[in-house]
Amino acid sequence: MYHRIDGKLVAVTVIDIVKRVFTSDYCIWDPDYAFLSLGVVSAIREFEYMKLLREKGYLPNLTHY
């Protein structure tokens, strides 16, 4: 996942999606934006993304995050 502010890349999150598990591997962010708690923002966006995928039926067997 890429996180941008006004077009500038400020964070990158790597996730793995396998048959039953959605795993957040790591998040790297620009230290100039540390005050925004981008790790927390990334985790929230991951939950939203996982929910969206489940609602659309793409991950019917997902049991763990």
Structure keywords:
three-stranded antiparallel beta sheet, elongated, alpha+beta, 3 strands, 1 helix, 28% helix, 65 residues
- For the secondary structure, the number of strands is 3
Radius of gyration: 13 Å
Helix content: 25-40%
Structural category: alpha+beta
The percent range for strand residues is 25-35%
Q: Tally the helices: what do you get?
A: 1
- Biggest sheet: strand arrangement: 1-2-3
**How many strands, what sense, and barrel or not for the largest sheet?**
3 strands, antiparallel
Following the backbone from N to C, one meets helices and strands in this order, namely: EEEH
Poorly predicted runs of 5 or more residues: none
Terminal Cα span: 16 Å
Q: Oligomeric form of this entry?
A: single chain
Choose one word for the global shape: elongated
> What number is the mean pLDDT?
89
